[in-house]
Amino acid sequence: MPAAKWLRSQLELGRVTGSTTLRPMEGLRGVAVLLVFLVHYATLVTPWVPRGGLSSQVLDVVHAVGNVGVDLFFVLSGYLIYSSLLESPKPFAVYLRRRVQRIYPTFLAVFALYLGLTLFLQRPERFPAEPAAAALYVLQNLLLLPGVFPIDALIAVAWSLSYEFFFYLLVPLVVGLGRLRARTREWRIGFLLLATAVVLVGFGTWGGPVRMTMFLAGMLLHELLRGGRGTSMSSSAGLLAGLLGLAVPLVAMPGPTLQAVRVGLVYLGFLGLCLASFGHPDGALARWLAWTPLRWMGNISYSYYLLHGLALQVFFTLLARLLPTGGEWAAPALLLPAWLATLPPCLALFLCIERPMSLASGTGRPATATVRLEA
Known about the structure:
This protein is mainly alpha-helical. The chain has one domain. Helix content is 70%, strand content 0%. Helix 2 runs antiparallel to helix 4 and helix 4 crosses helix 11 (255-279). The chain is globular, with a radius of gyration of 21 Å.
């Protein structure tokens, strides 16, 4: 098999040919991980850009907008995991084993790389001074505690995996104890709306990981889509909703209360975006999201999410030796080269670790797709 054809086969993960929901969902994952890439690019390219100029102002906007990429991942994860549990109940041990298999092989590979580089480069500030405390810190990172708990993550982006795994543990309890499978769709919608309000008010009053509310948006998305096209949105309305979700971070909202308002607005924006994308698979928005390169970016997005930050640091470290100064032109001119530089290591991680160890089923075909954060 020619190399290009083999690579294309590895980048296609959908098991259901022509799936009307899976293809735009893959594209949305691609959008989400590109937003995260822009956050780190905007940070690392700053030394080449004059402060106070137009490029600097644009980078500030890009950095703010890109931060909601993780929120979009949470919506998609909430949708997929909740849909799976509601439609196909399975023993908790089987479910949890699959979640561990999905997250840990790729995470452990990147964690080992970060740990090795930290020790090799002799950066003791990343670890507590006492050996016992340092060992505890490593264990905390391996258990994905940074994020939900106030612990600095060795892999900066791994805080979101803490949110993910907490959601993985919580949602089967909610579905089981709430007997959600036996309830009517209308009852579940009411329950999810009430839960959203309670969580937002609670976090807005006392603080906490308010962005976990986005998982509820994904769960609500599943229920709304079950109502058919009557509960979906047009492509234009969905695009406007998605743009709202992207624009919200541009408004300063300090403090827990306004942060809860911010998350609530992003919740509504991305809920509308997904309703339009999945509810109208023949619409313009869904067709755009099903663009093959964007879907492939979504399919490797978990590997890309974990490793692209380190790849960017290497790129800019080497660039500093070749191009010590920049200008207004630097930010747009370096964007494509920086992105291209991240692709080989992230693609290698996907092909060598994630796909064979986390996505392969017993028959050798890709397992049912799950969110690639685990954005």
